[in-house]
Specification:
Blueprint: H1 2-16, H2 26-37, H3 42-56, H4 62-76, H5 80-93, H6 98-110, H7 114-127, H8 132-144, H9 148-161
Length: 180
Amino acid sequence: MLRTFFALVLSAAPAFATCPPAPDIAGAIDGLIDAVQDAPDEGAARVLSGEMWTFWAKAPDARAQDLLDDGMARRASFDLAGAVTAFDALIEYCPEYAEGYNQRAFANFIREDFAAALPDLDRALALQPRHIPAMAGKGLTLIRMGRIRDGQAEIRRAVALNPWLSERIYLTLKPESTDL
């Protein structure tokens, strides 16, 4: 009986654990942003963007990484409700980790729940102000909400950091456009 109690307590211990601080990635991201601005072509820029993702998607610890990876796998298989649940757990555990918010916003964007995506993108950007995908995602979310000028302003901010972003095509939309 006592052994079962201790096994139960030990298995639940991670639920009570505190997430360590997210790693400081600002210097690495700044260096990659400088490099992508000097990229000779879109292919080279994609490689650098991929390197940025290795930093953004590096969770603070193994538990957070498992939650992030689970949510991303669920999103990739279009289990969007499961993805949001995984990202909810990640955010509850690591409320200062920007990627949890960015990924939950992405899942909600795919579900076309733009009102849910927007505050998560704002939080991701508050935590990582140079998170280019969160900027671009916020721009796309605002555009899908019909706020084309506001969305284009966000995309311009992202393109100022990475001029090779595919989202730059949205800068050609007319503010009154319905072709979203």
